[in-house]
Amino acid sequence: MAKSSHYEETKKYWNKKAPSELAREEYDIRKKIHTDLLWREIRRALNGNKNLSILDAGAGPGRFSIPLAQEGHSVVHLDISGEMIEIAKNRLPKTEKCDITFVQQSICEPLPFPDQSFDLVLCLDSPLSYCVNNYESAFAELVRVAKKTVVLCVVNRFGAMMEDAAEFDFQYFGKLKTQWDLLHTGNLNVNEEIKQFEPNLMPSWHGFTPKEVKDLIKNHSGKIIRISAPGTFTRCMSPEIIEKVYQNEEVYQDFLDFLEEFDSKEDVLGVGGIYAGGLLVRFEI
Ligand SMILES: C[S@@+](CC[C@H](N)C(=O)[O-])C[C@H]1O[C@@H](n2cnc3c(N)ncnc32)[C@H](O)[C@@H]1O
Q1: How far, in Å, is the centroid of ligand 1 from the Cα of 72?
Q2: Which of 137, 128, 134 is nearest to 157 (CA)?
Q3: So what's the pLDDT on residue 88?
Q4: What is residue 121's three-state secondary structure?
Q5: Average pLDDT in the 57-73 region?
Q6: What is the distance in A from the centroid of ligand 1 to the CA of 235?
Q7: Are 142 and 107 a contacting pair, CB within 8 Å?
Q8: Which of 49, 61, 168, 201 is most buried, judging by how many CB atoms fall within 10 Å of its CB?
C-alpha cells in the first residue's frame, strides 16, 4: 500500500537529520543532562534486571538501544529512518557480540510483534509526537506489545510553544497563527503555506499536555509510576554554569537529584526542556 505523504516527509526529514543527531549533546550541555535524566528513568525501569527483551521504538542512532544491547539485553531497534538505522549499525562495537535487531518502519503502523513481546518498551525523544493525528493508535500498539513497563518521552506542548513559534508567526504572517493551533489542539500542521517560508521544517507534530498523557495512559488502564518534565529547571540556567557543575561528579549527581525532584513537581509538568522531548513518563500496564 502507498505510504502517506506524512510518512514520506517524516522519513525524509529524519534521514537528513541522522548524521547530526548524536552531536546534539556537544553543542548544548542541557542535552547531555537530558540524556542522563532519561538514563536514570531507564535504570529504574530495568530495576537491576539482566537479559530483558526491549523494544526501542524510534531509536535513532542508538543512543539507548546500543548500550542496552551491550549490557546483555535483547533489543529491537525500530525506526522510520533507514539512515538512522545505518548510523546505529555502524556504531555497534566490532568486537562485542550484541543481541540487537533492526526494523525499519513507522510506529504509526501496526507493529510486527505479538502481544506482550517486550519486558520494556522505550519510545524516547518524541517519535509518538511525530505521529501527529495517529498518536492514539501508535500509543495503543506500544502498549499492546509491552508486557508491563513503558518509558515514553514526548514533546511537551507549552514548553515547545515557548521556543521560536511566536517569532515564526510574526515574521511570516505578521500575527499569531501556528501558536493558536498549538495552544488549542497541540498540533503544529506544517502545510504547504508554511513550507514555502521554511522548507526544512520538521514535519507536523503533536505537543502533549501532561493531562493528555495521563488520560492516554488511564484509557489503557495503565498506572503511572513516575512523570516529569526534564529540562524545566535547566531551561532557565546558563549553559556555562551547568558546564562547571558537570565537571564535578559529586556536585553533578546532587544536581541531577535536585532536577529530578523539581522537574516532577505537578506545578511545572507542562513546561519541560528547551529543544527536547520534555515530558517523560514511566508507566505500567
Ligand atoms: C530525536 S530522535 C530520538 C532518537 C532516540 N529515541 C533517542 O532518544 O536518542 C527521533 C527519532 O524518531 C524517529 N521517528 C520519527 N517519527 C517516527 C515514526 N513515525 N516511527 C518510527 N520512528 C520515528 C526518527 O527517525 C528519529 O530517529
Answers
A1: 23
A2: 128
A3: 97
A4: strand
A5: 98
A6: 23
A7: yes
A8: 61
Amino acid at 50: K
pLDDT value at position 71? Answer: 96
188: CA distance to ligand 1 center in Å? Answer: 17
- pLDDT confidence tier of residue 23, bands split at 50, 70 and 90: confident
Q: Is the pTM of this model over 0.90?
A: yes
DSSP run (H or E) holding 119:
strand 118-123
DSSP for 265-285 reads -GGGTTT--TTS--EEEEEE-
State mean pLDDT over 251-274.
96
pLDDT of residue 72: 97
For the chain, which residues make up each domain, given as ranges? 5-156+208-284
Tell me which of 78, 81, 279 to substitute to probe ligand 1's pocket, judged by most ligand atoms within 8 Å of the beta carbon: 81
Around ligand 1, the residues with Cβ closer than 6 Å are 10, 14, 58-60, 63, 79-81, 84, 106-108, 124-127, 130-131
Architecture label for domain 5-156+208-284:
3-Layer(aba) Sandwich (3.40)
Rounded percentage of the chain residues whose pLDDT exceeds 90:
90
pLDDT of residue 1: 64
pLDDT of residue 199: 87
Buried/exposed code over 195-207 (b: 16+ C-beta within 10 A; e: otherwise): eeeeeeebbbbbb
Cα–Cα distances in angstroms (integers) from residue 213 to residues 22, 122, 153, 157, 247, in the given order:
27, 15, 10, 11, 35
Helices (H), the chain: 5-17, 24-27, 29-46, 65-70, 82-91, 135-145, 157-161, 165-173, 178-185, 192-197, 210-219, 239-247, 249-263
